[in-house]
Structure formats: structure tokens, C-alpha cells
Amino acid sequence: MQVVLDGLEVRYGARTAVTGVGLAARGGEVLALVGPNGSGKSSLLRAVAGLQRHGGSVVFEGVPRGGIGFMPQDSGARTGLTVLETVLLGRHRALGWRVPAAEVARAGDVLRSLGIAHLAARPIGELSGGQRQMVFLAQVLAAEPAVLLLDEPTSALDIRHALQLLALVRDLTRARGLVTVVAIHDLNAAARFADRMALLRDGRLMAAGPPDAVLTEATIAEVYRVAAHVHVAPDGHVAISPSRALADR
Ligand SMILES: Nc1ncnc2c1ncn2[C@@H]1O[C@H](COP(=O)(O)OP(=O)(O)OP(=O)(O)O)[C@@H](O)[C@H]1O
């Protein structure tokens, strides 16, 4: 299974948000989409999710119908639904008018895997931003998608929950052979959990490949305009210590 982008282009009126992006996201691998604010990450993800008109092609090879799960950057919804009800909505394709006990148990399992089973009966409108972010990931995972598209899923999470969430996403991706694409700003987390990275600037793909090939001091200086020390951590992952912003070009 894979998702192949070729010449992908997204425009908003006269503004081009993504241009000429060619990229393959493969089953069983986490692909991290990184790049500065406004570089086109969300636009690319929305195009792949089928929510954004685009030029070029997005080809889903071996992906079952309805197999795409998308978690937007700002899920926002402050409904009166409980956490459990919100997660069950992720199963709407499988549900009729009645909710079988097995579905409730399955939703409970997803909540447990994210460490938020204790929130099941709480209205989502009363949760913290980070708790809500995990609930919306649970909703997406409950649908058991083959392609998982996550837009900054850890932006509201503390370091422990961010590590737990990314580890879970990586493990599910490997175990189920999912095609997973995660837009993320935290380069160290991306380097740790992604199999491959794609670096965007101004809507263009600047580099793609394994984290140690993409995250060099030269590419970080060029794309982010930041001076950074890049080294290999004792556990073998590439690690970035940013030190200062460089002058604009
Ligand atoms: N609905 C829209 N209408 C017009 N322009 C848009 C719209 N959405 C995004 N853009 C523009 O498209 C470009 C890419 O935006 P996008 O949200 O894809 O970037 P991003 O890399 O996800 O940014 P961030 O890291 O800040 O979330 C930006 O210049 C942005 O201003």
C-alpha cells in the first residue's frame, strides 16, 4: 500500500500554497511533514485527504474505500457530546441505530491505548486543549483507517503525552502497515518517530528521505533560517539543538 503524489499543487486564488510536490508515503512507515509556518503542510494534507481542490495527482495504491483517516490541526468542536460518544462517531460507518456493546468496548480500548479512558464520560467541551486533541485522535483511530493523516497532533500535548502519542502512532503504523503522514513542528520528535521526512518551504519540497539526511545544519539554516547544532544522540537518533535565528534573506 502507498500514496503517491505527483506534481501536487494547491492554490487559494492567486496564492500558491503547494507546488510541484512529488512524494511517496509507504505502508508501514511514518512520514513526517516538516517546514516553517505557512510552508504548505496543512494544504498538502488536506489535498491528500480529499478536502482540498488540487492540481497534479494523488494516487492511493491498495487503499480500501473509505480508508482515509484525517485529524485536522484545529478539531475545535466544543459539542455537548461525551468523549465516548465522540469516539463512537469515528465508527459511524460501522454503526446502525443501535450501538452494540462490542463497539463501546472497542471505543474503550482506543481510549485506553491513549491513556484517556478515565475521560470517557466527560463532555468534550469541558476538556483541556491537550485532552481534546487526544480524543480527536482516538476518534480517527476508532475508524481503523489504512491511511492516517495527522496535522500537528501533538501541538497541545505535554512532553510525556506527546511521546506516548507518537509512539502509539508509530507502533500502529508498523503493526498494521498503515500509510501515516504527520505534519509536525518538533524536529526532534519527528527525527525520533518518523521513518522518513519531507521538508517543505514556500510550498516546495526541499528535501525528503531519512531524518539524518533531511535534518542537516545546512538544510535547517536554509529552510528555517536558524543556526542549529545537529548531532547523533546516544540512542542513534539525530538530535537538533537550535541556537539562534539567522537574518532573513
Ligand atoms: N483558506 C486559505 N485561503 C487563503 N490562503 C490560505 C488558506 N489556507 C492556507 N493559506 C495559505 O497557504 C499557505 C500555506 O498554508 P498552510 O496552512 O498549508 O501551511 P502550514 O505549513 O500548514 O503552516 P503552519 O505550520 O503555520 O500550520 C500560507 O501562505 C497560507 O497563508
Automatic annotation (TrEMBL):
This is ABC transporter ATP-binding protein. Keywords: ATP-binding, Nucleotide-binding. It comes from Neoroseomonas oryzicola. Residues 3-227 form the ABC transporter domain. Gene3D superfamilies: P-loop containing nucleotide triphosphate hydrolases. GO terms for molecular function: ATP binding; ATP hydrolysis activity. It holds the Pfam family ABC_tran.
